[in-house]
Design goal:
With 253 residues, the chain is of the alpha+beta class. The protein contains seven helices and twelve strands. InterPro entries: DUF5953.
């Protein structure tokens, strides 16, 4: 299930729509398990919230993928609860009218979850062949979500002086990230669309970034998980929005 609690890290990764059973949902599960040794995603979460052990996990994921969906799955370890699911988003709600698939992961906001967040984000995004994605503590993600103006009559200003960003369907390209987070995955196309990296301007971000196998980037905005009650963290987020005006459709790329 998507992360909703303050003691969780919310991870959302935006990828092209599934093309039948193109193998990406299962590749994401396998990639997560490789990225975090000891992680075993072997249970399904029922509509009633019950955990169901899966004797044939791979088969269940493949069957749902052929229908354009991903079942809600959870790790078998109660001490490190990780869930992953996904669903398609209709073209009319997506940038440039191109349907997408969203992967949603929930991690504990604990020492183990914080340590694993970057490698799991990279695993989900790379195996899902994503455009972009982020991993952000839920408390900060709530405020960041309030930046989006979905209706013209919405006059409420975003919290904490954050900039207004367009709704996803109003953006020109799925390669342009819709918003920032604590950990940011930018595919090679997304990085190119926003002009990252510029060695002269991005030295600080590059010190907390790493290149992925596909040529994308995982960029950590702050060393510790993003906490917008911290003036230093809020300043880092505002500086990043100022550096990348393309993010959120605030200027033409």
């Amino acid at each position: 299930m998507p992360a909703t609690q303050r003691n969780q890290i919310s991870m959302i990764v935006y990828a092209p729509a599934l093309a039948g059973d193109d193998g990406r949902t299962l590749a994401v599960v396998h990639g997560m398990e490789r990225a975090r040794p000891g992680l075993r995603i072997g249970m399904m979460i029922s509509d009633e919230g019950q955990l169901i052990p899966l004797a044939d996990r791979d088969g269940a994921v493949a069957r749902e993928s052929s229908r354009g969906e991903m079942p809600p799955l959870r790790s078998t370890d109660d001490d490190f609860r990780v869930s992953v699911t996904g669903w398609g988003i209709p073209a009319g709600l997506c940038p440039d009218g191109r349907a997408q698939f969203e992967f949603h992961v929930a991690l504990p906001l604990s020492a183990d979850g914080i340590a694993a967040a970057a490698v799991l984000l990279e695993a989900v995004a790379e195996n899902g062949r994503a455009f972009w994605g982020h991993a952000t503590p839920v408390s900060a993600a709530w405020d960041i979500a309030r930046q989006t103006k979905n209706l013209p009559g919405d006059l409420e200003s975003p919290p904490r002086g954050l900039p207004v960003i367009k709704s996803p369907g109003a953006m020109s390209s799925p390669e342009i990230p819709h918003r920032l987070g604590w950990l940011n995955y930018w595919s090679a196309a997304a990085a190119g669309a926003i002009g990252f990296p510029d060695p002269a301007r991005d030295a600080e971000l590059l010190s907390r970034a790493r290149r992925t196998a596909s040529g994308g980037w995982v960029v950590r905005l702050t060393d510790a998980p993003l906490d917008l009650d911290s003036s230093a963290h809020l300043d880092a987020l505002l500086r990043a929005y100022e550096r990348f005006p393309e993010i959120g459709g605030r200027s033409a790329p």
